[in-house]
């Protein structure tokens, strides 16, 4: 039975109304990374950082999964082998679309993290650095997301899955952010067939055996149907 490992990026959620980061008009053209998405930014102006993520949390809560999210959930439910979904996205659209056991390598908007004790809890819609940690009481609340300069979550587990993959697919990713941009190479070393699905070839498209272009909501369901045989 084939094991399939899937990496998803902002492109899969774009059709649900959530902005991508590196495309023209993307989030990083409207905000400076160093102002809202680094530990240094949080230390310098926690209120600004919280305001940025509070707005994104509201937007994500209003978004709905699209056909690509639902197709991957179908693949998990119907494929005879293991299907592992790893996402760079901090929204919850995979789970809303029916996927299970999603690995959020960059954290989740819906979760809060205490910078003092490492405690985690469900985030309020509007977070503030003045919120007290339910575990230790410290007012050191931050979004439970991975910022630039921080190590993505569950990397050992992800690399283990890649080493056992028969098929690796990257969907809606820019190929500009490591370590995720190197996942195709890792999977290929283990003998996996690598497929990229994107609006246009990513920065690492050459690492893939096959590149399919088009809207995720259209291309992903077709790809899933091929794997499942209809």
Automatic annotation (TrEMBL):
Q: Which SUPFAM superfamilies match?
A: DHS-like NAD/FAD-binding domain
> Deacetylase sirtuin-type domain spans which residues?
1-230
The note describing how and how many cofactors are bound reads: Binds 1 zinc ion per subunit.
Q: What is its EC number?
A: 2.3.1.286
Recorded hits in CDD domains, A to Z, give: SIRT5_Af1_CobB
Q: Which GO terms describe its molecular function?
A: histone deacetylase activity, NAD-dependent; NAD+ binding; protein-malonyllysine demalonylase activity; protein-succinyllysine desuccinylase activity; zinc ion binding
For activity, the cofactor(s) needed are: Zn(2+)
Q: Does the keyword RNA-binding apply?
A: no
List positions binding Zn(2+).
114, 117, 133, 136
Quote the catalytic activity from the record: N(6)-succinyl-L-lysyl-[protein] + NAD(+) + H2O = 2''-O-succinyl-ADP-D-ribose + nicotinamide + L-lysyl-[protein]; N(6)-acetyl-L-lysyl-[protein] + NAD(+) + H2O = 2''-O-acetyl-ADP-D-ribose + nicotinamide + L-lysyl-[protein]
Instruction: Give the main location.
Output: cytoplasm
Q: Which residues bind NAD(+)?
A: 9-28, 88-91, 172-174, 198-200, 216
Spell out the subcellular localization from the entry.
Cytoplasm
Keywords recorded for this protein, A-Z: Cytoplasm, Hydrolase, Metal-binding, NAD, Transferase, Zinc
UniProt: substrate binding residues:
53, 56
Q: Does the keyword Transferase apply?
A: yes
- Active-site positions on this chain: 106
Recorded family membership: Belongs to the sirtuin family. Class III subfamily.
Describe the task this protein carries out. Answer: NAD-dependent lysine deacetylase and desuccinylase that specifically removes acetyl and succinyl groups on target proteins. Modulates the activities of several proteins which are inactive in their acylated form.
Q: What is known of its domains?
A: 2 residues (Tyr-53 and Arg-56) present in a large hydrophobic pocket are probably involved in substrate specificity. They are important for desuccinylation activity, but dispensable for deacetylation activity.
PANTHER family in the record: NAD-DEPENDENT PROTEIN DEACYLASE (PTHR11085:SF4), NAD-DEPENDENT PROTEIN DEACYLASE SIRTUIN-5, MITOCHONDRIAL-RELATED (PTHR11085)
Recorded protein name is NAD-dependent protein deacylase
């Amino acid at each position: 039975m084939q094991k399939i490992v899937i990496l998803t990026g902002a492109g899969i959620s774009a059709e649900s109304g959530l902005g991508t980061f590196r495309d023209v008009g993307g989030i990083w053209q409207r905000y400076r990374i160093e102002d809202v998405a680094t530990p240094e930014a949080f230390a310098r102006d926690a209120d600004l950082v919280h305001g940025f993520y509070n707005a994104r949390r509201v937007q994500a809560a209003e978004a709905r999964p699209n056909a690509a999210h639902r197709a991957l959930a179908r693949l998990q439910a119907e494929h005879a082998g293991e299907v592992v979904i790893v996402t760079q996205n901090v929204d919850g659209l995979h789970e809303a679309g029916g996927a299970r056991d999603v690995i959020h390598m960059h954290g989740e908007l819906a979760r809060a993290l205490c910078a003092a004790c490492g405690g985690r809890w469900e985030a309020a819609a509007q977070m503030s650095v003045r919120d007290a940690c339910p575990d230790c009481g410290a007012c050191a609340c931050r979004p439970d997301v991975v910022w630039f300069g921080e190590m993505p979550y569950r990397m050992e587990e992800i690399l283990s899955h890649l080493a056992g993959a028969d098929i690796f697919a990257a969907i809606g990713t820019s190929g500009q952010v490591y370590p995720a941009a190197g996942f195709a190479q890792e999977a290929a070393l283990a003998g996996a067939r690598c497929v990229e699905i994107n609006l246009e070839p990513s920065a690492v498209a050459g690492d893939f055996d096959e590149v399919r272009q088009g809207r995720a909501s259209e291309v992903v369901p077709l790809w899933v149907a091929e794997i499942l045989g209809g």
